Each structure stands twice: as C-alpha cells, then as structure tokens.
Amino acid sequence: MGSTSAANPGNEGVGRRDLIRRSAALGLLTIPTAGFLSACASGGGDNNSNDGDQGKTSKSNPFGVKKGGNLDVVIFKGGYGDDYAKAWESDYQKKLGITSTHTGTQEITGKLQPRFNAGNPPDIVDDSGAQQIKVDVLYKNGQLLDLASVLDAPSVDDPSKKVRDMIIPGTLDAGMQEGKIVALNYIYTVWGLWYSGKLFKEKGWEEPKTWADFLTICQDAKKQGIGGLAHQGKYPYYINVAIMDLIAKTGGLDAMKAIDNLDPKAFVGSDAAKAGVEAIYEVVEKGLLMPGTNGLTHTESQTRWNQYKAAFITCGSWLENEQLKQTPADFDMKFMPMPLVPGSKLPFEAIRAGSGEPFIIPAKAKNLAGAKEFMRRMLSKEWSTLFAKEANSLTILKDGVDPSVKLRPGTQSTVEASKAAGDNTFRYLYPEWYSEMDTAIQNASNELMAKRIQPKEWLKRCQAAVDKQAKDPASKKNHRD
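Above: the chain's sequence. Below: its structure in token form.
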C-alpha cells in the first residue's frame, strides 16, 4: 500500500484552513480549496544544523551541496515502483555531480530499523508500505529531521517563492507530528471503492450512490457466482477505508474530528460510527464478501478482483500501479466515492483525499545538505513530471505535471472524482499521529470481518483504543479545530 494538521513549522503556514486545493496537476483542472482540514499546532524550525561538510550556499544551492558526494537513497518499491527515483538520481548526478547508492525494497523495517538503531541511517527514505517504520515512533525517538528548512527554501521553479508556497494547501498535514513537518507525503492520493468498467457494462450495473444500491449490486453479483466486496483481509487497513469513510460521510467532519481529537464519544455514543460499521457488517452478514478474501494479502485479493471474482474492492489510488501486470487490457479500472447510508451529512461526491507516501530525512543522515536539496528538487515541475511519467500518479505540487503526460484509466478516474468532489474532501490524521491506536482499530476490524465480533463490540474496542491514547499527555499537542 501507499499509505498515511496544517502545521506551522516556521512562520509560514500551509493554508491553515485549506485541505486540498485540487489543482489536480496535469494542467487539466484547477479546483477550489477544500477548507476542511486544519490543526491547532505550533512548531519550531529546523533544529538540526549539522549539515556535515557543507559547500558554498547560494539561491540555486541553498544548502551548500558539494560536488563529488554520495546520497544514500532507500525507496519503498511498491505500487509506484522505484524507476522514478532512479530517474531523479540520474538527473541529480548530471546537474550536481552527486552519485547515489540506491536501494529499492518492500522490507523497510527489516532493512532500516537496524541502521536507525546503530545511528547509521540512509540520507533520504520513502518510508511506506506494509513494513513501514511508523513515523510517529521515529519522531518520538528523535530520529527525524524537521523539514522546515526545506519548505522555507527558495523553490526551484520560482526562487522568489518558498517551496511550501508551491504545494497544494493541506497536503503537508499528514507529515506533521506535534506541530512540526517531519515527513513529506509526496503523492496526491484518494481512497475509496474500485470496480471494472467492463464488468459493470456487461452486467448492466450503474455506479451505486446509496448503500442500498451498493448491496443490490453485491447481491446480484453473488447470484451470478461473483463476490460482492473484496478486501485485503490480511491487512485490515484497507477495509477501514470503507468503514472510516462511511463514518465521515454519515456524520460529517465533526464525526471525523471526534476520532482524531480522541473524543470520549468518538465511537461509543456516535450515531455515525454505529451506522458506518453496521453498514459494512451487513455485507459480512449477508455473505456478500468475495469468498476467501479475509485470508488474502492485498495483492492476492486485488488479483482475484482483476479476474472478475468480485464487483468491488477498497483501496487508495496506488491500486492501478500495483496491479499493472495482473489487470486485463480491457478491464477499464474505475474509482468511485463511498456510497451513502441514509441521513449522510456529506454528499455522495465527497472523498477521502490528501497525500500519501511519506519521504523522510533521518536526523543523523550523513549527507544532510544533499538530502535536503534532493527533497527540494522533488518539489520541482521537472521532477514531479518525471514521477508522473514513471509512476502514473499525481504529486502534491500545484499544477506539477506536464500536460503531455497521459494517465491510465483508473488514475484518470481519480482526477475526475477529485474534480467532482470540489470542496468536499476529508482526511483522517489519527493513523499518522497514533499508530498504536490505528493498529488497535485495524485489529478490531479484522475480527469484525471474520464475524468473530459484532458492531457493538467493534465500537467498544475502538473507543477503548481512543481512551487509551487520550491518557498520553503528548496527545494534547495534536488537535484539529
């Protein structure tokens, strides 16, 4: 998976009341700001000035990168691959004379935890995937650089502006810990339901806007020997896309913020949480899950869905890239928002949207200057376009992808969904802020989908996770208005 608090790390904000300004790159569209997300947070500047053997600084070389150095780069090789990073590294060497040591892997924790423990981390890391080292844990251990100095540096494309001014407002939020941006979530991501346009056309199914219509399609699929909903059973993160989206769309932003803000009635006592989990449990109770989905990994479940063994699957917008080899040429992958249960406060078009794929610079990186400059260049149109070409995805840079880049059908459908959503976007922050609580909620969902617990017990377990987190005094440093 890809993975995934408008901070104010320096004196510049990132649009404190804007969540996602949908300049959905590609020059195809520019969409108004969402104004959905903000955080009451304050933070310090870059508290690590040990840039090692630094060269001369200038506007075009703000960190004083010296030629002839080496950059140790580790990239999560998942849905987006790592060819984009190799293209970046090649350009970096050509323009700055810096060579790179490149590692592409899915074993982020296995390969990197020993290095962090030994005080010998890489210079820059795409810390993502199922084996991600949790950002909040690294932050609490003092192992991450505050990225304020990168964000306040001159932009590559317009040196009269800061890097942070070139970024879609609100997309820095997911990388905030206690008021500081310590991870750059680079990829513009949406989460929701996916289906095959080909299968729907063949069966005469319409994209369902209500939960009742969604269940009708699942039931029709079952009669024809097709699963209704597939999910990536071994990783309950994915089914929580559906459950938590339903909660936010049913109860509106207040229901979402109650969870992020560790409200004593975030789950138990929340009508929206009750309605959301009961809707998903209806799928389980009526036998509308794809058979065997609870025991499958993400790629196993997604591949069966690609084989037309299920009508729907939940995922983020990295799905198309992750499944390129398994997706039939005429599959016509489509993204859609979560359908509505009765009485929902947000419209059907509302989607969970924001940024994913966190890039971090370890505090003890050997080549700090080189790592900062690399990240600054990631936020240039040239490197953003290189990413889109290699990874079929949008970045957090405003209008950051050349219009000549053609997207595949699934990713194009996320652009259209973003345009339709307009201001109606939302994004939970508890997974980034409180990884232990997130794991507890995922574990409860795993039990729910296996029918070992019912919605009432799910709500109880999730509330217990919230209450436990609320007892940690550090939690008070994270808050959403």
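Residues 334 and 345 are 25 Å apart (CA to CA).
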